[in-house]
Amino acid sequence: MYPLLLSPLSDRVCSATRGLDSSTALEFATALRTATDLRGITTAFAAYQASESVYNLFNKVCLIYEGRMAYFGPMNLARQYFIDLGFEPANRQTTPDFLVAVTNPDARIVRGGFENRAPRTADDFARRYLESDIATINEQDMDAYRKSFVGKGNLAESYSRQVQEEHASTARKGSSYIVSIPMQTRALIARRFHILKGSMAAQAAQVL
Fold first, then answer.
1. For 89, 151, 185, 208, which has the most beta carbons within 10 A of its beta carbon?
2. CA–CA separation, 101 and 122 (whole Å)
3. Directed axis angle between helix 122-130 and helix 133-149, to 10°?
4. CB neighbours (10 Å) of residue 76?
């Protein structure tokens, strides 16, 4: 599972791609997607502005509006969900920008005939979502997860055993890190060496 968290207020979201250019942000999101698939884990990714390419990497998207959940469900259904609510995407507007725009009274475009029916406040959006079929599907997914995994002692024991097996013998006992500080230091030195090796021309130019 790889859900994306979108919020219209950048100062309230710790965006994972803040300060990165579009290509680097895509590489970072792709790396997380790969790790998520390989490890079979759930990774939550928060972003204020995401490109269409980054958006398409995710399974689900969660849209937050003034602290309320305006949408949480499959990413490929989000655009049509808000169109059905009465909003119109701007010309050539990406899906992430459209989702964020519907939570901004000055940016959203209401479709003709929906002036009195489209939600306006954060409470309206949250209420309409809870009444939607997508919310019902999510509830069913959560119930299925609880029945399969919650309260299963054998799964907890298996997880604890796996953590212990992955924990390096030289790492500090009780630490949440599975490798020791010397191992982390060696890995960082090796990483820096490979970076320098890959850009020898740039390094030589700086020296000269």
1. 89
2. 13
3. 60
4. 14
Residues 6+ apart with CB under 8 A from 14: 46
Tokens 């409470």 sit at which residue? 123
| Amino acid, single-letter form, for residue 39 | R
* Helix axes of 181-198 and 200-207: crossing angle, nearest 10 degrees: 80
The pLDDT of residue 14 is above 60: no
Q: Where are the alpha helices (DSSP H) in the chain?
A: 22-39, 52-55, 75-85, 95-101, 122-130, 133-149, 153-166, 181-198, 200-207
Extract long-range pairs of 24-29: CB within 8 Å, 24+ residues apart: 25/50, 25/51, 25/54, 26/51, 26/53, 26/54, 29/54, 29/57
Tokens, residue 153: 């002692």
Which pTM does this prediction carry? 0.69
The per-residue pLDDT for range 153-189, each reduced to its tens digit, is 777 777 777 777 777 777 777 676 778 888 888 888 9
- All residues at 6 or more sequence positions from 62 whose CB lies less than 8 Å from its CB, including other chains: 3, 4, 5, 6, 69, 71, 72
Q: Which residues contact 61 (CB under 8 A, 6 or more apart)?
A: 3, 4, 5, 6, 55, 71, 72, 73, 74, 75, 78, 99
Q: Report the alpha-carbon angle 135-139-142, nearest 5.
A: 135
Q: Give the phi and the psi of residue 110 in degrees, each rounded to 5.
A: -90, 130
